[in-house]
Amino acid sequence: MKKRYIFCISAIALIVVGYFIFLCTYSNKYTISLFLNGTVDVNAVSVECSDENVIKAGDIRQGNFDGLLNTLEIDISSAGRGDSFVKVSFDDVCDSKITDDNGTPHTRHITKHEDYEIAVHVLPFGMIWCTEYDDFNGLWTIKLLADALMIVLIITFSFSFLEKYREGRFSYSMVSLGGIIVFMTVTVYFSLYFMFSEMEYNKIAGIKSILYSVSQINSVFANMTFIPFFLFCVALSISNIQLVRHEGFRIFNLLGFMLGIFAVAGIFLMYYIGNEYYRHSDTEQILMVVINSAVSFIFCYIECLLVSTILCAVMSTKYRIRQPVDYIIILGCAIRSDGSPTPILRGRIDRAIAFGKEQSEKWEKTVKYVPSGGQGSDEVISEAESMKRYLMEQGIPEDHILKEDKAVNTYQNFSFSKKVIEEDTGDAQDKTVAFSTTNYHVFRGYILSKKLGMNVRGLSARTKHYFYPNAFLREFIGLLAEQKKRHIFFILLGIVFFASLYLIIMF
Description:
The protein is an alpha/beta fold. The chain has 14 helices and twelve strands. It has helices spanning 3-26, 141-166, 172-197, 199-202, 207-215, 217-247, 255-276, 282-318, 343-363, 383-393, 410-425, 442-451, 467-482, 484-506, and strands at residues 29-35, 46-49, 55-65, 69-78, 82-99, 105-122, 128-130, 135-136, 327-331, 368-372, 433-438, 456-461. Helix 11 (410-425) packs across helix 12 (442-451). The two termini are 46 Å apart.
């Protein structure tokens, strides 16, 4: 078992056991807080426990809630297992200002007698559960427990994520892992921020308020990240304008615009439901709750996966090969009318040549080049032949070049190149293979090579910046399409979970 999994299991076990010990020692006491209109004479307060073998009354005092309201606080402690009632009687005295017929202000003391009967239940390990308010002493620490467990998972998943990066195993599973890390990290941040900024309100938190805070995770996440996400969409739209100007009008060149429309529409729908919710019938409210849960969860799910896709795509271009390779597959693209490589294709070839020279100097090992690409209907020669000629012009010996001139797409580039390598060496599995392509295309190269069972490493050639954003979105769409059943399952599961929480709270 890997060390990170041992750490994860051990940390979770310690946290859970520690929390249980904390509950056994801390929750055997409970403070009943009753709000006052004015003040109370604590010496005149009557407190009776229906069964002192279960509950015993302790200190009685007057407190204050958030500097706004006075409270009467009664401490009780557990004496045994069972049910009991705490009966509290007191006079609530408040001052009311009145004005007589002459306009003279007076202060009148108003005394109101209050009687409360609070039901409690003592669990086997001494926890006092207040059935009247559905809480126990320190109920809010459940959120702290959940945050601690998520932090452990974040650390564990982060080690797995970094291991994939170090080993160059870029894949859609890495993207999904990154999306989970992003969602959990942002969730923990907001949870801790609101928890410690609202410490006073945590004292009166009941089980419904805890469930409500959980049900609001997606809405809070969407609202707090909307501005940076919207600015990101604006930047994408600007890059799309440049892309359309340089590459022409195509639907895939407008992905940034479409993403921006999706973001604005999602936020608008959540805002509308939040403001119109109470104006509808019970049946309509249930429907709106489900719609709001669906929209907010899908928004957060897609946002986290998009961030992770961009992160993985960028990391794949920054990855540095730390060992010599036997073959470098050069992925083809369009060539000029005279048969020479375009600047983009030349950049891919130059990157492969540069690594070959670096490898020769550092590890004293030569590499074989596999230029891959067929001949298009408007091309005078195949892309592979064009690349071969350029390689030879740069001083690469012909016997170090294995041409693959049948492929018409990236998948075939890898598939046919794999066969060429196998014909040359016998077994490609024993050889180390790299591929060279333009930076925005590197991540797709990793994904497609994994489908063929190839363990390859990518070499990234630079290109114009406006290609980047749309390439990231294309990979993101590819992720959703590649694993659509998995994503549909998790989205439906999330919708059912959060919608159920809403309905439990409401009804």
